[in-house]
Amino acid sequence: MNWKGMVAGLGLLSLFFINAKAQEKISEAGKYNFNYGWKLNVGEVATAQNSDFNDQTWKGVNLPFAWNQNEAFKVAIDHLSTGIAWYRKTFQLPKDAIDKKVFIEFEGVRQMGEVYVNGTLVGLHENGAMAFGLDLTPYVKPYPQVNVIAVKTNNDWKYREKATNSTFQWNDKNFNANYGGLPKNVFLHIKSKVYQTLPLYSFLKTTGTYVYATDFDIPQKKATVNVLSQVKNETSAAVKAQLKVSVLDLEGKEVAVFLGETSSLKPNETIEIKASKGLNNLNFWSWGYGYLYTVTSELLVDNQSVDKTVIKTGFRKAEFKNGMVYLNDRVIMMHGYAQRTSNEWPSVGMSVPAWMSDYSNSLMVKSNGNLVRWMHITPWKQDVESCDRVGLIQAMPAGDSEKDVEGRRWEQRTELMRDAIIYNRNNPSILFYESGNESISEDHMKQMKAFKEQYDPFGGRAIGSREMLDSKVAEYGGEMLYINKSKHIPFWATEYSRDEGLRKYWDEFTPPFHKEGTGGTSHENVNGTKVADASPYNHNQDAHAIESVTRWYDYWEMRPGTGDRVNSGGVNIIFSDSNTHFRGQENYRRSGEVDPMRIPKDGFYAHQVIWDGWVDTEKPAAHIIGHWNYEKGVKKAVTVVSTADVVELFVNGKSVGKGIQDKKFLFAFKDIAFQAGTIKAIGYDKTGKEVCQDEIKTAGKPTSLKLTSIARPAGMLANANDLALIQVEVVDDKGNRCPTAMDMIQFEVSGEGTYVGGIAQGPDNYIGSKNLPVECGVNRIMVRSTDKAGVITIKATAKSLKTAVITVKTIATDLSALSTNLPNENLASYLEKGPTPNTSSFTKTRNAVAIIGAKTNSNQADAQKSFDDNELSEWTNGDGAARIEYELAQEVKINQVVMKLAGWRSKQYPIRILVDGKKVFEGNTPTSLGYVTLDIPTPVKGKKVTIELIGTSKDSNEINLVEITGKVDEGGLKQTKSKMPQLPIVEVEFYEALR
Fold first, then answer.
1. How far apart are CA 166 and CA 164, in angstroms?
2. Which residues form the Glycoside hydrolase family 2 catalytic domain (predicted)?
3. Model's pTM, two decimal places?
4. Mean pLDDT across the stretch 136-142?
5. CA 879/CA 980 separation, integer angstroms
6. In angstroms, rounded to a whole number, what is the distance separating the alpha carbons of residues 317 and 330?
7. Phi-psi bin for 391: left (phi > 0), alpha (psi -120 to 50), beta?
8. DSSP, residue by residue, 151-214
9. Cis amide bond preceding 937, omega within 30
């Protein structure tokens, strides 16, 4: 066998002697990268668990590696291959591991994993979502003997728990892309027999080390750092133990060393020991400021160091009160993305190197998103740690589908939440624990909250669930598509703006001339019904971006600073196009603000503008939607997204007027005739001062291809698993991208790399094809390194265009079976947004007026429900007159009335409002995603406000939203037998202008 083949296999005994030097001693922290040197066989093999089984014909792979990952985006989620696959690996322990504890940590197996060591079954893991650990000590052989680990996996969609015959609620064909086998990292831990445990509760029943801060003084940059470590004594003698803690800053400078109190441990006893110290000059973790400290917890036994645990963490203060979220004492309105937990890429699924997780997640921050709500399934540790580095707040679910459950399936959810909290409680980016993707009972919410209070009492996190609008237990909530308000726990929308749009389609005037809404679909909803109207799922880029901005305004209008009851934001579904449930023309979800290769769509830049701030706009900006390369004679509407008060458009330096603003942030310019050159938008504030601008220039004729590489910042690793993104653009003679180019590109890869590919619209989505087109002038492919350091050469050619060539250098790394180079090593934090500002994040816009009572001749008993801060209760008139009078706490000039009326998105109510008997408003209420704001043109001073219905409500289809079930949500409308027109008031609020 040649040397290259031996390294690729990474499973031969000779390799262990070649790499023996790396295994002579236990690494300082006793943690090893266990990803290298696995063998894979797809299909059942009766004796594959046996040590003497011959696996030489099996495929050599390095983890993370899902055996069906090459199908990602090629087939729809429900067509991903399933079945049994075996993974095997041979390894030796270090020479000085005699009489040590040996643990293995799997970040996850999909769906089931039977783990065998030297032919013996060690454990069966079945939930398919969470990390787990096993004690291998009784089963491994000491150096120089060879050990064999074998893992049998099964990713059957209908897999049932062996002990109970129960399915798992989250093993779902709609949202949980099924990348089978070992798609995540694996680690080996070697510890002394008195040791700090691992945070892996299932199987091991241990909780690890908990690092948290208390006694925050944000202005003075002070806090107390606490380390609470679970220690286990597996010797036959009593010992005395204490913690020695060192804290290093982001530059590796030691900022503190301190000792905890000495504790005694009896033989086979497990206790928790603690060390604490107040620290000064701390850099607090924040949005877009992933400042992390390295906390090393060293276990001293009888004054001798025996064990170390190294934790990367950050310190930050979080509070959840007054209907708002506070980060480091500053209010932050949530705006970001409900992202599929698989976070997948074409051809490789979720199994990407850690730097690519950083690249993808940092783009969310660069779009000015501050929150990622992972959907349904707890995220894998690589993404959790990545969000720490890039400064992206996380909402961490456990596992569910779309409803509350009972019995064993509920127990599975609680076990998963418990394990996820223990495993991830040191990660500062997690601010929310999500107990369900649908409301859960109060008893179930109490159970989930008890886990948080038991295992993460000091983490500064809120636990809640979707909805929970009247819960007395949940610490946050919020519906899926609608605006909720609260003056107590924060409410933010868990997903909104479901629409989809392919990156390939600019607008109706650009090849391939995609008319808005066309495409059709034969896809079914979750409940089996057909998608009746596919237009919202077949947008072009213009319409998709405009819809995202339109939907956000309803949340922003009810933001912090607008009263005592506020909305705390929401997350757009989704960030990157996903190999999951879809309702458009393609076989994957295209709701992303970037495509599957993370190339931005126009919606990405639109969000950069509207989300530029913690609450209020902090840096005015503008973005012209679309491009400026059309045929002569084209006239089109130009839309500018801007946070300026006024926007003026210029074509080749000549003004074409001020934009018409029918919705906040959107400025429309109708019938703009194309002229080659420059189109510029300038934004002004209320005084006429220029505050922002954007411009687009017409590109020339295509002449060349341009290649750019995006790779691991510290150098691409020669580990047969690292990836580089290669971007190809069609450019003019000045290097400008040609935005309408659709040329077919041929790729050649040579040297120490292999071709992986990209994605485009076409047969099999071009997955794996070495020929694929650019779309809107750009596309990307991936190349994979080999196990040999060297140079990868990528060549791109296209008809009538100048060829482009680029090289990527790969660097050697430790490829031994017990590698000391961890996957996230040397990855830098993203710090671009800087520390939390010490200024207010919003300016108060109005004063709320307290309501002290209400009178009505119709359902007086329910009158209070119309202002009780509970959106699941309401007053309506029933068989009586639709009229209700409110008494205010004091006499004021009312300038705005805000209401949530049942049927808010489909009903318009003709109403009249009177203040102390004088009419101040008469007209139809608009539709919305929840609340409507009615301006009083001429405020009248008074203490009593009357609202009455003066006609019959009218139906409106202005807001076209269809639930994932295929049903149209009625927006809280209830059936009534009354023949009287109804005025169902969910909540009403009155405001006066600031004095």
1. 5
2. 320-457
3. 0.95
4. 98
5. 6
6. 10
7. left
8. EEEE--TT-B-TTT--B-TT--TTTS----EE-S-EEEEEE-SEEEPPS--TTT----EEEEEE
9. no
